[in-house]
Automatic annotation (TrEMBL):
<feature type="transmembrane region" description="Helical">
    <location>
        <begin position="28"/>
        <end position="47"/>
    </location>
</feature>
<feature type="transmembrane region" description="Helical">
    <location>
        <begin position="236"/>
        <end position="254"/>
    </location>
</feature>
<feature type="transmembrane region" description="Helical">
    <location>
        <begin position="193"/>
        <end position="215"/>
    </location>
</feature>
<keyword id="KW-0472">Membrane</keyword>
<protein>
    <recommendedName>
        <fullName>DUF300-domain-containing protein</fullName>
    </recommendedName>
</protein>
<feature type="transmembrane region" description="Helical">
    <location>
        <begin position="151"/>
        <end position="173"/>
    </location>
</feature>
<keyword id="KW-0812">Transmembrane</keyword>
<dbReference type="InterPro" id="IPR005178">
    <property type="entry name" value="Ostalpha/TMEM184C"/>
</dbReference>
<dbReference type="GO" id="GO:0016020">
    <property type="term" value="C:membrane"/>
</dbReference>
<feature type="transmembrane region" description="Helical">
    <location>
        <begin position="92"/>
        <end position="111"/>
    </location>
</feature>
<keyword id="KW-1133">Transmembrane helix</keyword>
<dbReference type="Pfam" id="PF03619">
    <property type="entry name" value="Solute_trans_a"/>
</dbReference>
<feature type="transmembrane region" description="Helical">
    <location>
        <begin position="68"/>
        <end position="86"/>
    </location>
</feature>
<feature type="transmembrane region" description="Helical">
    <location>
        <begin position="283"/>
        <end position="302"/>
    </location>
</feature>
Length: 396
């Protein structure tokens, strides 16, 4: 078995989803640590989600929160299985990355739900913004409530989950044909190209969300939410797992700092390939990071604020002799939904809603392109008219 790192990995490899390794390449202590993290993560997620569904006062906000809350336990579970079955780890983690991208989508839509009342309040208002996104980095938004900035942000955010879906299919197909080459940095395989594109896609969405948080800073204060807390609960694990769990460990394995053993120095006599060691460390990082951020999600994605607003609104309406509606009518408010109705709203409607929002973003993008083309034509016509007037005046 090769123990000298990824530099000698061959590409293409044998077609199929299974790699060298398997049950002999997982270590009991690392596996048990991941299992412990997994149990803690699931307990926290189930308790918090159950509290949401039993106090479902704000469907437009809470549906996104309960979806995000499933991200850490599901991702950790898939990572744990990939530790147990290293020979199928690449295929298993395709689906973990897919679920990760949908969590990012729900982070953005959750923030959009909090921002919606202020969009309605400022409809038609042209207000520029010059926020400081990062130290020494300022951006200029001509109209922060306008269609242009909203659609550009939608595109930069939605490209990440859409690319992740496409990436999963490309990766599975390439693995099947033997051209994924996860253990090689050869440009004959798909892995190198996908990592580069993933890096670009991740950088785009991080830049877009940092700008988005800075542009609407005053609105987050008015809504009494920590938008940056929301952001880091979701993007924090992604950034740590990608930059440390993927890029750093891959680099250490490639230059030989991280290497496998032939089993001679192990009490079990089990040989560990470099790839198996790298995968084990990456999974441990994933599971520990997810457990930590799952604890933070109790504060930022818990139902506390929705319960407080719902109870206060219900009490105010009841005191005034008004009814607190328990349906999706146009009455403007909702009583907390039943547990079954809340579950249906949160999870059953998930995929249709995602497809609808992506389609809407495409339609709005087309409308924006047509609007910009029309404005350019009008500008050219005005310039041509001014030039004709100037020429006529000069003639006289």
């Amino acid at each position: 078995m090769d123990t000298e790192g990824n530099s000698k990995a061959q590409c293409p490899t044998a077609p199929g989803f299974s790699q060298d390794g398997g049950l002999a390449n997982w270590h009991i202590w690392g596996w048990m640590l991941c299992l412990l993290c997994l149990v803690i993560t699931w307990i926290i997620a189930i308790v918090t989600i159950n509290k949401h569904l039993r106090n479902y006062y704000e469907p437009e906000i809470q549906r996104h929160k309960v979806r995000v809350l499933l991200y850490p336990p599901v991702y950790s579970t898939l990572a744990w299985f990939s530790y147990l079955r290293y020979d199928y780890s690449t295929t298993i983690m395709f689906f973990a990355a897919l679920f990760e991208s949908l969590a990012v989508y729900n982070l953005y839509t959750c923030l959009q739900a909090y921002l919606q009342p202020y969009r309605e309040e400022n409809e038609g208002v042209k207000e520029e913004a010059r926020p400081t996104v990062m130290p020494f980095i300022k951006v200029h938004i001509k109209s922060r409530w306008g269609m242009h900035y909203r659609i550009i942000t939608d595109i930069l955010v939605y490209q990440f989950p859409l690319w992740s879906v496409l990436d999963a299919f490309i990766s599975i197909f390439a693995e099947w044909k033997g051209y994924y080459c996860v253990n090689s940095y050869s440009f004959k395989g798909a892995h190198v190209y996908l990592v580069i594109i993933n890096f670009i896609s991740l950088s785009l969405i991080i830049s877009a969300l940092f700008t988005y948080l800075a542009v609407y800073k005053q609105e987050w204060i008015r809504a009494r939410i920590s938008a940056h807390g929301f952001f880091w609960c979701v993007k924090g694990p992604i950034m740590i797992n990608f930059y440390i769990g993927t890029l750093l460990l891959s680099g250490l394995a490639y230059n030989g700092t991280l290497h496998g053993t032939d089993g001679s120095q192990s009490s079990e006599g089990i040989a560990w390939s470099t790839e198996a060691v790298e995968n084990g460390l990456e999974v441990i990082i994933d599971c520990v990071v997810m457990t930590i951020f799952m604890g933070l999600m109790i504060r930022y994605f818990g139902p506390q604020d929705s319960i407080a607003r719902g109870v206060n609104t219900q009490a105010a309406l009841t005191a005034g002799g008004e009814h607190y509606y328990n349906d999706d009518s146009d009455m403007g408010m909702h009583e907390k939904l039943s547990y079954g109705a809340a579950f249906k709203d949160a999870y059953i409607r998930y995929i249709p809603e995602f497809i609808h929002n992506v389609a809407t973003c495409g339609r709005d993008s087309s409308a924006l392109a047509k609007k910009r083309a029309r404005l350019r034509r009008q500008k050219k016509m005005m310039e041509a008219g001014n030039n004709m007037e100037t020429t006529a005046l000069n003639t006289f």
